[in-house]
Design a protein that fits this description.
By secondary structure, the protein is α+β, with helices and mostly antiparallel strands. The chain has a single domain, classed as OB fold (Dihydrolipoamide Acetyltransferase, E2P), CATH 2.40.50. It is about 20% helix and about 35% strand. The chain has four helices and six strands. Strands 1, 2, 3, 4, 5 and 6 form a six-stranded antiparallel β-sheet that branches. Helix 3 packs parallel to helix 4. The chain is globular, with a radius of gyration of 18 Å.
């Protein structure tokens, strides 16, 4: 196995580097890519399942000009965390149903596994950074079944 070369990245002039713009807010068709990663939130240590969404197509409500400015959606992914608490389990069930998973007879873990490879609509909103800076992040606001 060959060692990856970081030289092209490390040799770039620092003055050319700009912060990437967040993808435009709106609705995208996305692919649930892989099984969830499990972790816990940094502040409250709440356990979660993190899903990765690969963007496939932009909806009619997307600012196409802004999308073209950032190079389109090719290769763009988003992540979303679903908390693993009693009060949040309904969100996991809803997400699984949006992915076309019938929860009848399944455990929560099985629903999470069956979401892998599903297509789903993701609604993206913009949120300011929590640290008070002027940074804006694209976040998954909700999911919906592909029509």
């Amino acid at each position: 196995m060959s060692t990856p070369s970081f030289a092209p990245i490390l040799d770039r002039p620092a003055s050319e580097i700009e912060r990437p713009k967040p993808i435009p807010a709106g609705t995208y068709t996305a692919l649930v890519k892989g099984l969830p990663e499990f972790g816990e939130s940094s502040q409250k240590k709440t356990p979660y399942a993190r899903f990765t969404f690969e963007l496939l197509a932009a909806g009619d409500d997307i600012d196409q000009e802004a999308l073209e400015e950032m190079g389109g959606i090719g290769g763009k992914t988003l992540r979303n965390d679903y908390y693993l608490t009693e009060d949040a389990l309904w969100r996991i069930k809803q997400f699984a149903e949006d992915c076309g998973v019938d929860p009848e007879g399944l455990t929560v873990g099985q629903m999470l596994e069956y979401a892998n490879g599903a297509q789903v609509q993701v609604v993206v909103r913009h949120e300011p950074a929590r640290d008070g800076s002027d940074n804006i992040f694209a976040r998954v606001a909700k999911t919906a079944p592909v029509a």
